[in-house]
Amino acid sequence: MTTTTTSAIGSLVLLLVVVVAVGGVCAEGGGGGEAEAEAWRAEQERDRVARVPGQDFDVGFAQYAGATILRSESILLTTAFNLPGPGCSSIAYGVAEEVGPFHVNADGQGVHLNPYSWNQVANILFLDSPVGVGYSYSNVSDDILNNGDARTANDSLMFLTKWIERFPQYKGREFYVTGESYAGHYVPQLAQAIKRHHEVTGDKSINLKGYMVGNALFDDFHDHLGIFQFMWTNGLISDQTYRLLNVFCDYESFVHTSSQCNKILDIASDEAGNIDSYSIFTPTCHASFASSRNKVMKRLHSVGKMGERYDPCTEKHSTVYFNLAEVQKALHVSPIINKSKWETCSDVVNTNWKDCERSVLHIYHELIQYGLRIWVFSGDTDAVLPVTSTRYSIDALKLPTVTPWNAWYDDDGEVGGWTQGYKGLNFVTVRGAGHEVPLHRPKQALILIKSFLAGSPMPSAQDFYSDIDVVNTNWKDCERSVLHIYHELIQYGLRIWVFSGDTDAVLPVTSTRYSIDALKLPTVTPWNAWYDDDGEVGGWTQGYKGLNFVTVRGAGHEVPLHRPKQALILIKSFLAGSPMPSAQDFYSDIVKWARGVFFGMTL
Fold first, then answer.
1. Where would one find the signal peptide in this protein (predicted)?
2. Is 435 a catalytic residue?
């Protein structure tokens, strides 16, 4: 793991970087005489971290943490993993909960091995930038108030050139940049800066071969368009709110939204309820019920957990761990820096961001001309920068299709997602993953990075099995529509409920919503979230005159199979003729229970 430092004239700027080598120590080589080699080996040894606090096991790779002054086999250098932002730490996300070799334990006091770490296939460099993020620091207070896209790209380039001087054995090796979220700006902007640096100086010690971004900020217009559509198609917001978002929210700006748009965004957040907008089908961290992370539309400009062992509170664990004095000492953090509290994200950096390009599509066109390997991936349960936004942005590039849309498969023969190849760019979705793909789908993410680095297609169905279609061929009559029957039965005063699992692609929630809308029934109860016995959003519901509609979050075509507990709540409410449980119902029950325990009485 390695800490690094930048400086402008008159200021000292420290950028934290963590370096994890592929199994074994850093490679030898790099030119120069023996005395020079001994000097840089000694510097690197001072940066070495034998083990991090709470690491009670041995590993077969090297870790470093140190400082460098900036501003004023498969041969791979690094995979630089820039994460959400602007203002969020790659150490907090990339190292501690996604692709790093260690993940932080739930008590925040130690670490455990990540079996899907990307340092199995590459030497990884995690860069915290710009200044003010994580342990990165400047002794000029105004520096933290003057960050932006251009400055971050320039600082990152200068850091890399200095880092190569510190680790010359990596000079000329293949170099790839990856990142998520706001790194949709950082990564292509850094790639552009590197290529232009090559052209101006002739220095090609940074041998850039390609980059990959995931759930990335691309283009304000298309990102907004895709977010609103994703919210509606997944049943998070009402028809009315969706229409109002399209009318009043300026697609051209994420930051400078109108007061009318902000009001509609507030309504959308209330309708969506307490869900993790970065992964809409997974549990929330109840330690932060009111967290803005769970407010789907609340802070669109601040962009940037599936499976049986998924932990929704990983950020909380990292905050504890990286504030431990022994951790900061092990990472060689300057005593000047560790006087302040370490945070996963800096609101100061975020709110004082000076320049944010509305679109980076023009950079893609420029970089495609260099022949770089460019991949874009998207977890398809993220509502912050959803797959719909990415697809609109890629479509706007107007690139010819080389490989048509097709499913790719993981090692178990399950569909891992879908992929399409374009001239100069490859697009991959990861099924069931949220904003942080390696967190939600670590095994599939490892397949993704292996394919990217190898320049090979994602695994296809031919590697596993052929599907067999089963068709009901003898059905004699099938009405094109039963909407007229609904109108007739509503007149009889029957109790009519319609429910929909929102992950079904055969008869999806969107189809049901269009059909109900075609009935033209007056709304009685507006769109709102309903809650299960654990206080998690079970889905959404809306009452019409004569009909009630309920979605079940995370359920497929067979709702009771995929969400049996929520399905039981559904049938109980239907038979009782009562509304689906609300957040108020859930927390009222908790208060009653707590009072009963406290006073020793049965309620």
1. 1-27
2. yes
